[in-house]
Structure formats: structure tokens, C-alpha cells
């Protein structure tokens, strides 16, 4: 029918967006030769001055990885990755380790300014004075190397460790050794093994017993050099009764080729401790024809080891050509709780296969899953989830809500929920809906003077609100903007 | 100059012709009632005037303030002062009335080269207009029309009308489903907007609303055409005798 065609034209037009963060920064970069073998791993380890146990950790992961088949179970089409064409270590060249903000390459500072990242301590300090709030500590990572971690001194007074992974290996080897690979073992899966073999940097967080981290900790990841992969490693440990809220943001320049991002995030939560982990993922999604874009193949897992421990994942995913990740919760402690709030937007030819796993091992452990998929263009958007209740886990509760919103006739929404319940006392609920964006809603907005672009932005924002509201304030605003940007063609 | 001039308007939905040659002229300051049996094309007329993409104009023209209305997208018609109080207002989950209305008001201001209202200015305006239709503050903070009763939805339409201060307002059966008190509140809201520059089209089945709003012109639509034109006495005849005589005369 003529009229439906015209309205879907409008939608198509609005949903063909451009990528705002696709600039590259002209910084001198040191890149090691392409390809992967044991010598490359030794080279990475040597460059970072690592102890032998860590080199062995890497080599062990690499040897296991070599023998593994490439996983194919995701509802995504990953083109075969030629690991000989990727450089596994790229770092902006710099003088011997920046000790303060003044020593950081001004070009990098400019890049983070463009991205809107509050890197300058003084700006944030000004924020503290004005608002009486606590500000945000930022660890910024370009390509493989951590550039600067702000607010470190203030955190150190409380005994909080927040530094680059490389620094942690040098300064706190015992802590790193105690926790590394305990939540995501090197042999966990194909991409986790690859990361364990070649990871270059990342963030390390340790919150001591009884400490409530007074500010948000944030990492910003940016892939800048071409033909490189980014394999960062994040390790967060919350000791007994500790609390921390951690934010992660990601961008990359526009490149014709696919860039590989295979990160591992491990979170270890002790008794009565709580960790909130929020992600706004905006890697370059590829162009309108599906050319280029980041392959985001990530393993994220939290272990609620202690009783009454709590983990909450919140993610807003708008970027990447391919997203393949399942931030998971292993609820081992009795009365522990896991939450997963997700909005995944796919447009053009993006593919996302994302969801979570809730593994209930502890008694009376609780979990909650809220997943909102939004598909536009020719994209494919899948929710994949596992709720598992072990035989000994009495009194478990789970609630899962899984909604899909379709913005085009050519996009797909899929759900693959799995429940493995081995204890009869468990109460597990699952709700799912799929809907198309409603022409009546659009017209209602138009009639009030809200044009098609703004209207779709409003409606989608409303749909995602429940999840976005879980983000810390600064991030929620950014996420709202990203959501509208990724479905509109209003590019700044 | 007339505010609205409709000439020989033909329109269809899904290939089915609904309007078969409507002619109607509306001047500033006038209130027109449009009546007619179900399926006559009354709501189609309001859909065409507001640019609902589900309908197709097959013939005819509409001049609004001397401009070609049919060439304007729906949002521009709104900016130019056309407002429709929907017969069935839709719900928009997760979008608060405050956010929705602020976006709408500021889009209007942008079109008129006015600066956006600050949060404080906007909330003051909203409070003032809310009282016109006695809309509860709780409703204003809820998602658009979500969980509103039928009457609340209609009052919310008039609230939005008060916020946007349209030049031409179209009320599509705003009175249906309202109790007497709500009807008075809605009519008050409409009457407050009356001025020498503005005009209204009131689509209704009921006498009560026309007692409150008092149209100068009454038109009867039947089978996609205006078959009778008159003053308030025409409405009174319809309320007394129904539409049968109109149908017989038209056939």
C-alpha cells in the first residue's frame, strides 16, 4: 500500500545514521609487527616488564586457544578473522610514563575532549565544589595503553586502588595474582583465551574492606591505530562490605576494515559487597552498507562469592558491527543477588547477540534481567540468556523481562532464553514482548509539532527508559543522546 | 482572508474513497460544528487537515492562511497553528507528559524563531495551563496518556491545546465518553481560547457540547460530502429528528 510505504520511508530515512566519533587522532603510535605467535606474546610481556608467572599465564592461554575451534553458535555472521593481519600491541609513543596530566600528549587530551570525557582533574574538582558531589575518576585507554588515571591520590587515601592493569602488575603483584583468571579462567572460551594470551592493558580496581567508594570510577576505551586489535583486561575486586560503581565507555574511528575488540572483565565480590558496572558501548558500527566496524567479542563475568553480595550490570549498546557478549553473574554466596539491565540498538547491518547468564549456586540468591532490543535497518538483534539453578540452591528467585522493538521491516529480533532449573523451590518468571514502532504514536507526536526524527527518538527513549534510568546521572544523559543519535541522521 | 479554504476535497484510505468533494471555508473567529452519521467521513476530514499519512488526498485543494496546506508535513501544520484533539489519544510508554510537552512547545518556538523555554519557565507555563482543565499534577508526571482514564485523556488533549494555543483547533468527538462535569471543564478550556484570530472545528454527536461551545455554523456530512449547511438551528433539528431526513434528501 502506498501509505505504508511512505511511512516506512520516513523510518528508513531517520534510522540511517552516521557515526559521530569516527575521527582519528594524529598521535605517534608504536605498533608491533602483525601476526600472533609465542614470540609476539613474549614481546608484549617483555614490553610491559611482566613477571614470569604472568608470561606463563599468557602462554598457557595461547597454547590452549590454538587448539580450539572458532565458536559459531552466535546468531551473528563473523567473517573469519585473520590473526596474522592484526597487530596485537599498539601504544601511543610517549616520554617515559606520564606522571601527571601535563605530561600526557596534548593530542590525546584533545581526543578525549572531543569525546566529552572529563579528563581534567581541575574541572572535576570544580564540579565537586559546585555540586557538593563526588566527581568521577577516569582511566583512559587508547589502543592498548592506559594513558592516565585521574584522582588517584584522593582514592589512595581510602586505600582504594584504581590504576592501569600494567601498573597493578608492578605495584600490587600479589593482589593481581590472587584474582586474575579466578572469575574468567584463561580456558573459559575462545575469545577469553585469546585475551588472556595477548591482553595489553586495562583497569584494575580494588576496594578494601568496608570502604564505600565515594566517586564513580570510569574507563574510556578508544581504538585509534588502524589494523590493531584491542584486548583490554579489567579486574575489579570488592572486599567485604565494599561498594563501587564503575563505568565503561568505548569509541573508535571509522575504518573500512573490521577491528577486533576482545576484552575480558572479571569482577570478584566478597561478603556484603556491591558492584555496579555500567557500560555505554559505542564502537564504530560500520557504514550504511555494513562495511567496516568493530567486532566486539567480550567476556564479562562477576562472581558473587560472598553472602549477601550484589552485582548489577547495566549496558547501553549502540555500536559495533558485531556484538557478542553476555555479562554474567555467578551467584555463589547465599542471599547474593545479580541484576542485568540492557538496551541494545542495532541499525544498518549491525548484528548483536547479547544477554546474560544467571548461575544460581547460593541459597536464596536472586536475579533480575531486563533486556530491551531495538532493531532498525537490516540489523539482527538477539537476546540470549541462561538462568541456571543448581540442585543445592534453595529459595532462588529470578525475573526475566525481554522486550524487542522493531523499527523496520527488514530488521530481525530474536530471543534464545534457556532455563535450567534443578531445584524445585525456585521461582522463575519470564516475560517477553515484540512490537513494531507504532505509526499512531509517530503521528500523534507529529501532530504536536514533534518531527519524525525527534518523535522516534522520544518513543525509543521512552522504551529504553527503565534501563537508562539505572545508569549514573552523567552516563544516563550521554546514553540518551547516543540512543537518539544511533537511530537518527542528525549528526553533529 | 479566510483562515481555511477547502475545495472539492477527495480522499481515500487503502484505496477506498471516503471524502467525495468537500467544500468548506472558515474565517478567523468562527466556530464550525461538523455532524453526521457514523462513517460519513468526519474523522477523515480531521485526518486530512492534520496530514495523517494513512490517508491519501486524490483530488482537490486546501488553503490555510493562503498557503498550500497539503504540501506541508504534519509537524509543520502543527507549527502553523493546526491542532487536533484526537478521538482516541495514543499512549506513549516511558515518555513523560512533561518531556513530551516541552519538546512540542520548544519545537513550535524554534519554528517561530523564539528561544527555547527554560525548565523553570516551562514548568510555570505548564502549571498555569494545567489548572485550566484541572489536570492533576500526577498525570503530568506520568507517561503520555498511559494509565489515564477516558476522561483524563480528553482533558489531557485540551491541556495540550491550551499549551500550544493553536489558530485552528479541531475537536474530534472530544465530548464522547465524558460525564457532565468533565464536559464543562473541556468546554471551558475551549472557550478560553476563543478569540477574533482563532477558529475551531467541532466534530460531535451530542447536543450538550454545542450548548457550551455555541457554534455559528453547522455542517452535515453524509457519504463524504457536506449535504446541509446552516446555523445552530440545524444542529437542533438533528438532535430532535436524527439524520434520516438528511439521508433521504441526499439520496
Write up this protein.
The complex is a heterodimer of chains A (492) and B (251). Chain A is α/β, with parallel strands linked by helices and 492 residues long. Chain A has two domains: 20-63 and 81-325, no CATH class; 334-492, no CATH class. In chain A, 26% of the residues lie in helices and 34% in strands. In chain A, strands 5, 6, 8, 9, 11, 12, 14, 16, 17, 19, 21 and 23 form a twelve-stranded mixed beta sheet that branches. In chain A, strands 4-3-7-10-13-15-18-20-22-24 form a ten-stranded mixed beta sheet. In chain A, strands 1-2 form a two-stranded antiparallel ribbon. In chain A, β3 (136-142) and β4 (145-149) form a beta hairpin. In chain A, α10 crosses α11. The radius of gyration of chain A is 22 Å and the shape is globular. Chain A starts with a helix and ends in a 5-residue tail after the last helix. In chain A, 56% of the residues are buried. Chain B has 251 residues and is an alpha/beta fold. Chain B has one domain (4-250): 3-Layer(aba) Sandwich (Rossmann fold), CATH 3.40.50. Chain B has ten helices and twelve strands. The model of chain B has no long low-confidence stretch (mean pLDDT 92). Chains A and B meet through α1, α10 and α11 of A and α2, β7 and α3 of B.
What's the SSE blueprint?
The complex is a heterodimer of chains A (492) and B (251).
Chain A: H1 2-15, E1 29-31, H2 38-47, H3 52-66, E2 90-92, H4 106-114, H5 121-131, E3 136-142, E4 145-149, H6 152-157, E5 161-164, H7 165-171, H8 173-179, H9 190-198, E6 203-207, E7 216-222, E8 229-230, E9 233-238, E10 243-251, E11 258-261, E12 264-269, E13 274-282, E14 293-304, E15 310-317, E16 322-325, E17 328-331, E18 337-346, E19 351-360, E20 366-375, E21 380-389, E22 397-406, E23 412-421, E24 427-436, H10 439-447, H11 452-468, H12 473-487
Helix pairs in contact in A: 2-3, 3-9, 7-8, 10-11, 11-12
Chain B: E1 4-13, E2 16-26, E3 31-35, H1 42-50, E4 55-64, E5 67-68, H2 74-79, E6 82-85, E7 92-96, H3 97-111, H4 119-132, H5 137-141, E8 143-144, H6 150-164, E9 168-172, H7 180-192, E10 199-203, H8 207-213, E11 217-222, E12 225-230, H9 232-241, H10 244-250
Parallel strand pairs in B: 3-10, 3-11, 6-9, 9-10
Antiparallel strand pairs in B: 1-2, 1-4, 4-5, 7-8, 11-12
Helix pairs in contact in B: 4-6, 6-7, 7-8
Amino acid at each position: 500500500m502506498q501509505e505504508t510505504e511512505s511511512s516506512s520511508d520516513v523510518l528508513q530515512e531517520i534510522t540511517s545514521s552516521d557515526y559521530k566519533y569516527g575521527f582519528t587522532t594524529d598521535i605517534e603510535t608504536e605498533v608491533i609487527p602483525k601476526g600472533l605467535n609465542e614470540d609476539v606474546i613474549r614481546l608484549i610481556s617483555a614490553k610491559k616488564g611482566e613477571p614470569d608467572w604472568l608470561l606463563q599465564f599468557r602462554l598457557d592461554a595461547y597454547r590452549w586457544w590454538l587448539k580450539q575451534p572458532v565458536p559459531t553458535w552466535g546468531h551473528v555472521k563473523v567473517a573469519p578473522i585473520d590473526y596474522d593481519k592484526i597487530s596485537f600491541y599498539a601504544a601511543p609513543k610517549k616520554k617515559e610514563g606520564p606522571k601527571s596530566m601535563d605530561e600526557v600528549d596534548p593530542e590525546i587530551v584533545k581526543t578525549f575532549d572531543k569525546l566529552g570525557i572529563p579528563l581534567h582533574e581541575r574541572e572535576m574538582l570544580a564540579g565537586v565544589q559546585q555540586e557538593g558531589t563526588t566527581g568521577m575518576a577516569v582511566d583512559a585507554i587508547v589502543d592498548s595503553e592506559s594513558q592516565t588515571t585521574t584522582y588517584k591520590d584522593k582514592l589512595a587515601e581510602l586505600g582504594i586502588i584504581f590504576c592501569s592493569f600494567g601498573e597493578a602488575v608492578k605495584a600490587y603483584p600479589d593482589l593481581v595474582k590472587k584474582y586474575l583468571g579466578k572469575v574468567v579462567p584463561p580456558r573459559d572460551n575462545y575469545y577469553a583465551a585469546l585475551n588472556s594470551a595477548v591482553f595489553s592493558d586495562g583497569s584494575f580496581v580494588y576496594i578494601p574492606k568496608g570502604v564505600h567508594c565515594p566517586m564513580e570510577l570510569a574507563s574510556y576505551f578508544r581504538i585509534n591505530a588502524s589494523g590493531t586489535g584491542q584486548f583490554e583486561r579489567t579486574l575489579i575486586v570488592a572486599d567485604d562490605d565494599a561498594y563501587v560503581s564503575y563505568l565503561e565507555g568505548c569509541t573508535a574511528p571509522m575504518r573500512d576494515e573490521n577491528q577486533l575488540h576482545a576484552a575480558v572483565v572479571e569482577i570478584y565480590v566478597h561478603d556484603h559487597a556491591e558492584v555496579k558496572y555500567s557500560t555505554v558501548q559505542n564502537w564504530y558500527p560500520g557504514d550504511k552498507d555494513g562495511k567496516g566496524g568493530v567486532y566486539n567479542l567480550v567476556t564479562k563475568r562477576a562472581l558473587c562469592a560472598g553472602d549477601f553480595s550484589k552485582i548489577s550490570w547495566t549496558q547501553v549498546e549502540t555500536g559495533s558491527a558485531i556484538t557478542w557478549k553476555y555479562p554474567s553473574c555467578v551467584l555463589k554466596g547465599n542471599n547474593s543477588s545479580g541484576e542485568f539491565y540492557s538496551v541494545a540498538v542495532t541499525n544498518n547491518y549491525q548484528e548483536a547477540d547479547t544477554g546474560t547468564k544467571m548461575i544460581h549456586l547460593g541459597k536464596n540468591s536472586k536475579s533480575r534481567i531486563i533486556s530491551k532490543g531495538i532493531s532498525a535497518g537490516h540489523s539482527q538483534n538477539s537476546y540470549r540468556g541462561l538462568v541456571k539453578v543448581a540442585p543445592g540452591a534453595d529459595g532462588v528467585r529470578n525475573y526475566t523481562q525481554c522486550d524487542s522493538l522493531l523499527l523496520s521491516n527488514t530488521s530481525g529480533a530474536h530471543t534464545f532464553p534457556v532455563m535450567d532449573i534443578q531445584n524445585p523451590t525456585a521461582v522463575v518468571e519470564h516475560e517477553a514482548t515484540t512490537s513494531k514502532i507504532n505509526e499512531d504514536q509517530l503521528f500523534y507526536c507529529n501532530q504536536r509539532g514533534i518531527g519524525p526524527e525527534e518523535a522516534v527518538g522520544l518513543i525509543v527513549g521512552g522504551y529504553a527508559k527503565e534501563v537508562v534510568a539505572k545508569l549514573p546521572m552523567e552516563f544516563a544523559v550521554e546514553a540518551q543522546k547516543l540512543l537518539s543519535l544511533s537511530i537518527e541522521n542528525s549528526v553533529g | 482572508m479566510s483562515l481555511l479554504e477547502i475545495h472539492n476535497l477527495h480522499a481515500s484510505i487503502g484505496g477506498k474513497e471516503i471524502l467525495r468533494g468537500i467544500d468548506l471555508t472558515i474565517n478567523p473567529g468562527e466556530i464550525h460544528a461538523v455532524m453526521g452519521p457514523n462513517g460519513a467521513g468526519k474523522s477523515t476530514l480531521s485526518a486530512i487537515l492534520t496530514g495523517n499519512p494513512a490517508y491519501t488526498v486524490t483530488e482537490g485543494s486546501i488553503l490555510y492562511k493562503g498557503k498550500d496546506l497539503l504540501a506541508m508535513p504534519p509537524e509543520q501544520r502543527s507549527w502553523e497553528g493546526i491542532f487536533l484533539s484526537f478521538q482516541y489519544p495514543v499512549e506513549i510508554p516511558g515518555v513523560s507528559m512533561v518531556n513530551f510537552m516541552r519538546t512540542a512547545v520548544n519545537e513550535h518556538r524554534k519554528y517561530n524563531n523564539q528561544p527555547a523555554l527554560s525548565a523553570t519557565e516551562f514548568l510555570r507555563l505548564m502549571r498555569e495551563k494545567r489548572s485550566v482543565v484541572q489536570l492533576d499534577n500526577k498525570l503530568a508526571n506520568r507517561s503520555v496518556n498511559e494509565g489515564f482514564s477516558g476522561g483524563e485523556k480528553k482533558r489531557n488533549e485540551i491541556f495540550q491545546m491550551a499549551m500550544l494555543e493553536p489558530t485552528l483547533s479541531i475537536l474530534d468527538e472530544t465530548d464522547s465518553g465524558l460525564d457532565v462535569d468533565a464536559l464543562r471543564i473541556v468546554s471551558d478550556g475551549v472557550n478560553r481560547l476563543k478569540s477574533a484570530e482563532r477558529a475551531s472545528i467541532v466534530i460531535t454527536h451530542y447536543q450538550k457540547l454545542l450548548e457550551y461551545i455555541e457554534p455559528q455554523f453547522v455542517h452535515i456530512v453524509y457519504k463524504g460530502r457536506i449535504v446541509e449547511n446552516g446555523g445552530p438551528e440545524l444542529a437542533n433539528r438533528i438532535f430532535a429528528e436524527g439524520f434520516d431526513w438528511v439521508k433521504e434528501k441526499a439520496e
